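ok so dumb question maybe but i'm new to this and my supervisor (M.) told me to 'just get the structure for Periplasmic beta-glucosidase' and walked off. so i did the thing. is this what she meant?? sequence i used:
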Amino acid sequence: MKRANILVVFLTLFVLNGSAQTKKPVSAEEAKMNTFISNLMAKMTVDEKIGQLNLPSSGDITTGQANSSDISKKIKAGQVGGLFNIKGVDKIKAVQKIAVENSRMKIPLLFGMDVIHGYNTVFPIPLGVSCIWDMATVQKSARIAAIEASASGINWTFSPMVDISRDPRWGRISEGSGEDAYLGSQIAAAMVKGYQGKLQANNEILACVKHYALYGAAEAGRDYNTTDMSKVRMYNEYFPPYKAAVDAGAASIMASFNEVDGIPATGSKWLMTDVLRNQWGFKGFVVTDYTGIPEMIAHGMGDLQTVSALALNAGVDMDMVGEGFLSTLKKSLAEKKVGIAQIDRACRLVLQAKYKLGLFTDPYKFCNAERAEKEVFSPANRQVAREVATESFVLLKNNNNLLPLKKSGTIGLIGPLADNTANMYGTWSVAALFDKSVTVLQGLKNALGNDAKILTARGANFLADSAMEQRYVNIHNPTYKRDPRTEAEMIKEALEVAKKSDVIVATIGEGSEFTGESSSVTDIQIPETQKNLLKALAKTGKPVVLVLFTGRPLALNWEQQNIPAILNVWFPGSEAGNAIADVLFGDVNPSGKLSATFPQNVGQVPLYYAHKNTGRPLAEGKWFEKFRSNYLDVSNDPLYPFGFGLSYTTFSYSDVKLSSNTLTKGKSITASVTLSNTGKYDGKEVVQLYIQDLVGSITRPVKELKGFQKINLKAGESKTVTFNITENDLKFYNSAFKFVAEPGDFKVFIGTNSRDVKEASFTLK
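this is what came out, is it supposed to look like this??
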C-alpha cells in the first residue's frame, strides 16, 4: 500500500470513530478552571487523588454527631470525594465543614441523592411523567425537584433514568420513559436541562444519567441480569436517550449493573471511552452504581484489585460504595496495572464538577436554611405536582361516557388504595412526606364537599398471602397496615357499600414497591385477590370505574372486557387524591398517552410498536394464519398500543397532506393534518408523527416515532397541525455504524396513537 493511501485510510478511520473532533477554543472561564485544578492537583498526594474517586454512602448522619462518625475520619484523611443518602441543610453543612476545614486539601464534597421524581413534593413516577408528551411540563417537574433538593443541601441527583425498556416484567420500567428511543431522548434532554439549568445558581444541581447502558433490556426482565444485543440495535434503539442527555450537557453518567458484549458495563472501555467519550464527546465524569465495581467479582472478572483496575482503565471515575479504588488503586499503580494518568484523569473530572457547581468559591452554597423553609413542599410546588399528575393519567376505556362523574349522589370508593397514604408516591420516593400525601378519599372529599356522599370499603389487601405481601409493599414506610380479615369478609363489606352506591370507584392495582429496583415479576396481571373483588363489584350491575395504580404495563384483558371505565393513574405523587378527583369529575380532561405498550398477556412480551417485519409477516388485523408469524392462542395485537389514550371529548383527523412527494437531500417537506375537536369538552390531543423506511441496507422497523405535538382545542375547534420532515429524520445507523439517510421510498403516518393513523408516501432523492 502506498504511503499516501495509508494516510488517507488512517484519517478516514480517525474521523469515523469520532476521535478527530476539532478542538474548540478554550474559554477564559474554562482556562481559569483548568489552571485552578492543575495547581490544586500539583499539591495533592496520590492517596488524596484516589480519595476524590471514592463515593461512600453516609447513612443519614444525625446532626451533632457528624464529627464523631466513622465517615468523618475518612473525610479528614482526604479519602472521600462525595457522599449520598444524607439530606438536610444542618447535616450537610456539618459534614461539609469537616471536609473544608479539617482535611489537608480542604476540598469540598459532592452530596448526591436519588431525587428521581421529585423531592418532598413528589411528582408521578417517571413512567407516568413520560405519558404527558409535553417537554415543558417534564422540564418543569425536574426544575422543581432541583430547587427543593438543593434547598436541602443536595447538589447531585442520580437521575434521569433513561433506559429503554420493552419488558414490563422488569420492575425498573417504572423509573424510565418507556419503550421508544425518540420520546425517551426528548425526555432525557428535558430532564437534564431542568435539573442543571446553567449550573450557576444555588438551585441548579448535577444530573446523573443512568444506567449506561442497556439496563432496561435485561434478559427475562430480571433485575441485574445479562443484556445481549447487536450493536446495530444498540445504536438505533437503545443508545439514543443516553446520547441525547449527553448532548444536553449532562454532567455525569452512571454505569449500569448488566454486562454488555460479555463485559460488565462498569468495566467496559468500549462503552465508557470509545462510545461515550470518543464518539459522543462526553466531558463529565462517570460514577458506578452501588457496589458496581466489587460486583464484577461475581461476574467472574477477577478479584477486587483486578476489577478496580479494569473499571478505572475503562473510563470510570468514581466508585460508589465499593471502595475498590480506595483500597487497591495505589497498589495497582505500583504494579503498573493502572497509570497515574488514569488516576489524574478521574480526579480532574470530579474536581471539575465541584468547580462548575461553585463549591470551591462557596462550599456552603447549597446550605441556605431560609431557602429550605420557603421553597420545599410549598403550596406552589404542590399545585404544579397536582397539574402534572392530571396530565400523566391515561384514560384506557370509557364506555357510554361513564366518565366524567357527576358531583352528586352516592359514590362507593372501594379498594386497598382508597385511603392509603403509603402508596400514593410510587417507588424511589426517598424524601417523600408519607403522612402528607393526599389519598383518593381525601381528594374526593375535597372536590365534593357536601354535594355527594362517599361510602368506603377496603375490599381487599394487595395480595392474599401476607408473607408475599410483605415482600411487595413499601417496607420502608410503616404507615401501611394490612387488614387481618379474610377475603370473603372484605368482599362482603364492599358489596354492602356497592348496594348503597350509584357508582363504584374501585382503586385497585399495585403498591408503590411492586415496581422499582429488585421488583421484577413473572405475572403482570392485577393480583388475584383484588381481581376477585373487581369481579364481585362488576356482578352488582352498578357502573364501575377502575382507578388503576401501576408502575408497569399490566395485562388487563378481563378488565377491558368487563369494566366500563378504566383510568390509569400510575402513582401520582404528593397530590394524588386531588389530581384523581380533578379528572374523575371532569375539572381536567385526561390527555395522557401511553409511552409503553400494554400486552394482552405476559407471553407476548417483549411487545413494542417499532418492531421489524419477518419474512412471513401476518397481515394487519388478521389472526390466525398457518405458517405466518403469529401465536395459536392469542393475536399479535397489543391490548393498548404505544401512544394510546382516550379523552372525554373526541378528535378527528383529516387525511395527511404533504407539501411534496419528493424530499431532496438538504431540503425539507411538510406533513400536515387538520385536527378537529368533535366532542362536547375542551381537550388536549397528542398528534403523533411516525415514519417507515420501506427499503434499507438493513431491515427497518414498521414505523418509528419522529415527532409529536400536544394540541389544546376547544369543543368544536379545528387546527392544522404541521410537521417539518428533513433528511435528518430519516437517518439511522447502518451495518457500518454510519448515521445515514438512504434514498428511497418512505411512508409517513399521523394519528392519535401508533396504530390508528392516516398515511401518505414520499421519496427521498
